[in-house]
Design goal:
single chain, Phosphorylase Kinase, domain 1, D-amino Acid Aminotransferase, Chain A, domain 1, 2 domains, eight-stranded antiparallel sheet, 19 strands, 32% helix, Phosphoribosylaminoimidazole-succinocarboxamide synthase, EC 6.3.2.6, phosphoribosylaminoimidazolesuccinocarboxamide synthase activity, purine biosynthesis, ligase
Length: 330
């Protein structure tokens, strides 16, 4: 018998007996900030990850982070949008739109997603309603301790590094490039995974030293291929993918793609019809949040303030626009 069930109770009765307010915490806008399911949990900045034994349950909440802090305000619907976008790209892998060249080269591309349906063992324990549309059931994997970053345009930490040295992670770039300029070819610039604070960009030699040349080369090749194929798909829908980061893990002796994939939380998306190199671009992510915090009197060393409703609304609309453009609904 499930530890939360009672003799003679049906699954629906068991679920309804579990107090939703104890399992799910929402803010005043209806954003889901926390989940407390009766399974072992690991909590990240945005996702709550539960161990279901043979699989993992990844719940995308509506939490939002900035400058390495989780904010007290959520972005309503953000978790569902992130999940739908990851599923969009996983479906493209399954259909062969992404990774076809890898398969031809004898390197089939696999990912960790098994299902987006709420598992019975979870639905029997809690009200599944708040989880619908925001969960992924995935395979377990031994995580590769590097972020696999691919850059197709010059922005963010890459732009800062280029200004300082003319290169990014040991990759020498032509002189005279402008902010947000498209690179002649996408470049692979790995980063170490930090438990706290920022990841650190490193040359691929660091990855080779730790993982071996064969594994590092496979990660580089897989990352560049996924990015290039995804960028073609996005471009047909009027979206530019400036850069992105992938995570991989070992499962049954092979590397598979894990975590979220090509979402506004792991990538920069720009509208192709607005793209103007030489300046920062309007992006489909938490740009409004970062700009508001930078303009506020917050010192970045204390708990961050709640977001004004206007900023929450604008950020929600920005995330939604990016997802709709990718789905061809814009």
């Amino acid at each position: 018998m499930h530890p939360h069930s009672t003799p003679g109770s049906s699954p629906s009765e068991t679920a309804s007996s579990e107090s939703t307010s104890e399992v799910f915490r929402f803010d005043d806008t209806g954003a889901l900030l926390e989940t407390h399911l009766p399974f072992p949990r690991r909590q990240g900045k945005v996702r709550d990850v539960y161990d279901l034994g043979d699989t993992l349950l990844i719940v995308s909440t509506d939490r939002i982070s900035a400058f390495d802090y989780i904010l007290p305000s959520g972005i309503p619907g953000k978790g569902e949008l992130l999940t739908s976008m990851s599923r969009f790209w996983f479906d493209a892998i399954d259909s062969g739109q992404i990774g076809g060249r890898l398969k031809e080269a004898g390197i089939p591309l696999a990912h960790h997603l098994l299902s987006a349906e709420v598992p019975a063992v979870v639905a029997e324990s809690v009200d599944p309603g708040p989880l619908v549309g925001r969960i992924m059931v995935t395979q377990k994997a031994e995580v590769v301790p590097f972020e696999c970053v691919v850059r197709g345009y010059l922005e963010g930490s890459g732009w800062r590094a280029y200004q300082d040295s003319g290169e990014i992670c040991g990759v020498k770039l032509p002189a005279g490039l402008r902010q947000c300029e498209r690179l002649e070819s996408p470049i692979f610039t790995p980063a170490t995974k930090a438990e706290e604070g920022h990841d650190e960009n490193v040359p691929i030699d660091v990855m080779i030293d730790q993982l071996g040349a064969e594994t590092a080369e496979q990660l580089r090749r897989m990352s560049l291929t996924i990015y290039e194929d995804a960028a073609e798909i996005a471009a047909r829908r009027g979206v530019l993918i400036a850069d992105t980061k992938f995570e991989f893990g070992w499962h049954d002796g092979r590397l598979i793609l894990i975590d979220e994939v090509l979402t506004p939380d792991s990538s920069r998306f720009w509208a192709a019809d607005e793209y103007t190199p030489g300046q920062s671009q309007r992006s489909f992510d938490k740009q409004f949040v970062r700009e508001w915090l930078q303009a506020s009197d917050w010192d970045r060393n204390s708990p961050p303030p709640p977001l004004p409703q206007e900023i929450v609304q604008k950020t929600t609309e920005r995330y939604r626009e990016g997802a709709q453009r990718l789905r061809g609904e814009w």
